[in-house]
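Troubleshooting entry. The earlier prediction with adenosine-5'-triphosphate gave an output that would not parse, so I re-checked the input for stray whitespace and re-submitted. Clean input:
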Amino acid sequence: MMRLRSLSHSLSARLLLLTIFFVMLAEVLIYTPSVARFRLNWLEDKLGDGHLAALAVVAAAQDMVTEELENELLTSLGAFVVDLRQTDEPTRLLRFDMPPVPERIFFLDEGNAFTLISDAFDSMINGHDRAIRVDGYSPHDATTKVMMIIDETPLAEDLEAFSWRILALSIFISLITAVLVYVSLHWLLVRPMKNITDKVVAFRDDPDDVASILPTSQRRDEIGRAQRALHDMQDALRAALKQRERLAAMGTAVTKVNHDLRNILSSASLVSERLAQSEDPKVRQAIPRLFDSIDRAVDLCSKTLVYTREGAPPLNRVSLELSRLVDEAEPFLATARTTETQWLNEVPTGLKVKADQEEFLRVLVNLARNAFQAGAMTVTVRASVVDSATQIDIADDGPGLPPRAREHLFQPFAGSARPGGTGLGLAIAREIVSAHRGQLSLVESDASGTTFRITLSR
Ligand SMILES: Nc1ncnc2c1ncn2[C@@H]1O[C@H](COP(=O)(O)OP(=O)(O)OP(=O)(O)O)[C@@H](O)[C@H]1O
Ligand SMILES: [Mg+2]
């Protein structure tokens, strides 16, 4: 059962069945007109025979044609009556004493292709033991009209035999064609396709398996092109996978180094706090810079850690009052702004978003810090619901994105245009928003300010 089903799903089996079907269809299309022509020829021949027999009777002296001879002639013709009409007057030449009444009359000169075809089928189905009248010109003399009443049985039998012959021939031709088409398609298409499929499946299961390498084909057709393209793709993918492995290893190393570095930095920070109590004015003067450097180093470590952690952050999404969240961001901005700057919360109260509190706060803080660090005096957060999505705009009145940042927007490590910046803030923000199935995009940025937009579906 399984085998049968897989066979009916295989390309070759379907091709085989389709070929047989199409050849049979072609044969039917050829058969119908030819059966009509066969019947027409048969009847015309019959009229010709009748014509010749009648001529023989005319040629003989009237008294020589006995009734017995007339009957014999008619029987051998398979006819009951033969009339010739040379001029307008009919000449009844041969007839049985009591000829049967014809059930149908056929005029061979009339009728189109369709009536000829339907008459042929009618003969085959109803023609056994039926007397019919046939009118037409003799094939021996186009001016002589012949009318005959004949027994249709031999015609029906001949038509049947003809149909059987055609059927047998069709089956024979379709089988031969199907086998030929099957073999050539199998050779040209199915086999190479199966080969490609096997290799692709093997490649998916194990990209390093040598058995999955596609041979470079010399074929110039579509299959050859597909094979070459797949071969190139395999190469590129394999290289990319190797690269990814290396990057993953590097990521692990960076995470380890970072972790240790953070511990080292916290001890350094403890030591420097003690140093701050030193009496030496020179030491005391250097202390703020030391603190600042250590803070930046810790910041760099935490950000790199956030970025190199594997995949998207695990989220704990809850319904949050957005306006409250914006207020919560304020303390985290202190180091990036001066006292004259403003953090304006214009989010309508009551507007809720479904988000992970800590991660989403990080997004707001990263965007806001950037704006203040770039020199904005006011950063405004607005939010609205548009078509079943929440749009949150973070707009500032700063100088706009510098070209370098614009070219590498959202690219980790590459987009920083700020001394001391790591270029991770926007990349992390976008990653977190994506993990919420949302979008972070730049709406506008020019000399009068910059606006970033977070779109979250509700
Ligand atoms: N609102 C803004 N106005 C002007 N420039 C901006 C704004 N936001 C970002 N930028 C520019 O984009 C760059 C990239 O920002 P991103 O937050 O990714 O990195 P960073 O701020 O340099 O470093 P960090 O990883 O510490 O955040 C910034 O260096 C800054 O030049
Ligand atoms: Mg930043």
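This one parsed fine. The chain has three domains: 2-177, 222-307, 313-457.
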